[in-house]
Amino acid sequence: MKRVLKTVAVAFIIALILILIKNEYARCLPASTYGMQAAIRKERVDNLFIGSSMFRQGLDIDVLEAELPGSSYILSYNGNQPALMALELQYMLEQGLQVKNLYIDLYPYTAAADPWISDTKILLDTDLKFKAKAWRLMRNSTDVSFGDFYEFFVTANNEQLLTYPLNNKIVSSQFRDGGSLIRQQGRTREELYALGTLGSRDGVNRTQAEGYGKIVELAEDYGLNLWFLETPKYERMYADEDYQKLYAEALSIVQELQSGWTGEGSFAILCGEELDFDISEAGGYQDLIHLSAEGRESYTALLCEKLKATE
Fold first, then answer.
1. Please, which domain of life does this record's source organism belong to (predicted)?
2. How many whole angstroms separate alpha carbon 123 and alpha carbon 248?
3. What are the φ/ψ torsions at residue 167 (nearest 5 degrees)?
4. Rounded CA gap, 164 and 32, in Å?
5. pLDDT digits over 137-158, tens only?
6. Measured between alpha carbons, how far apart are the two ends of the chain, in Å?
């Protein structure tokens, strides 16, 4: 019996050590062309875009690099939320990344969600200290279970680590400087109007609102030029009362932060409607909220023109 208990104890200790190594040092694997570590290893990014799939599908890296002065990088994770964007920004700045211009995704549905990491690639990019902060953020804001804890610290990304050389090669072929190279086709008007809208929410989540505030605070502390960007949604989404109500609330929060700005750099908000982008052109969208390859090229060109005009 003692031998069995000793074997179990040794196995447990080894497993614990492997878990700690994974959570602390997986970030040290060779970086792909996507995620936080790839950005950090650049040491300096003049134009850093942090957002959700709105940025991954809505910003064209070719156009950004051709039109904006200096280097550009798109950091996007599925479902990326303001509270997590703040943690990501803080992590990269504390790791020594130098940033001049910061662009933040202003998408109200992520601001209305309970804090949660939808894209576990974030966990591969960060150390144990970041993971502990992210877990506390989620635990303090929503109901979590032991199963959630186990998945977060133990099982998440294990399959990617086991196939890392192949997985890293695939990811690197699909992105450059964080920008997606995959070209998604647009839809027809009939197809887009057949899609359901996203429905109502209970308003902007308090923790997410605090995330907006933390982003502004970091921009002030590091002397960054800060932009909040709304990528254009399809006309049917803008006609949706639930979207308009939620977007107005998120925009109001950011505008209030803008009014109290004390940073050395600039602070601006650029809504999709302020650009001459045709939100009725179905070919520019792959669904109601994500741009197609054609749409993102057009939007990014208009965005760069606007950004350069305000310098």
1. Bacteria
2. 32
3. -60, -40
4. 10
5. 999 988 889 899 999 999 888 8
6. 74
Axis crossing angle, helix 206-221 with helix 128-141, rounded to the nearest 10: 140
Q: Which of 178, 174, 172, 168 is nearest to 45 (CA)?
A: 178
8 A C-beta contact, residue 71 and residue 45: yes
Residues facing residue 226 across a β-bridge = 102, 267
| Number of neighbours of residue 87 by Cβ within 10 angstroms | 22
- β-pairing, 175-176 vs 179-180, is antiparallel
Q: Could you give the CA distance from residue 202 to residue 305 in angstroms, rounded to a whole number? A: 36
Q: What token pair was written down for 184?
A: 């998604």
CA dist 169 and 175 (Å) reads: 10
CA distances, 134 to each of 9, 91, 238 (Å): 29, 11, 32
Burial track 136-171 (b if 16+ CB lie within 10 A, e otherwise)? ebbeebeeeeeeeeeebbeebbeebeeebeebbeeb
The CA angle 196-234-211, to the nearest 5 degrees, is: 90
How high is the pLDDT of residue 18?
76
State residue 84's pLDDT score: 97
Cα–Cα–Cα angle for 184, 188, 189, rounded to 5 degrees = 130
pTM of the model: 0.94
pLDDT confidence of residue 282:
97
Cα–Cα–Cα angle for 165, 167, 173, rounded to 5 degrees: 105
Tokens of 251: 């925009």
103 phi, psi to nearest 5 deg: -120, 125
Identity at 273, one-letter amino acid code: E
For the chain, list residues with pLDDT below 70. Answer: 1, 4-5, 8-12, 15
Q: How far apart are CA 294 and CA 277, in angstroms?
A: 12
Cβ(178)–Cβ(75) below 8 Å: yes
Pairwise CA distance, residues 103 & 238, whole Å = 22
> How far apart are the C-alpha atoms of 243 and 258, rounded to whole Å?
22
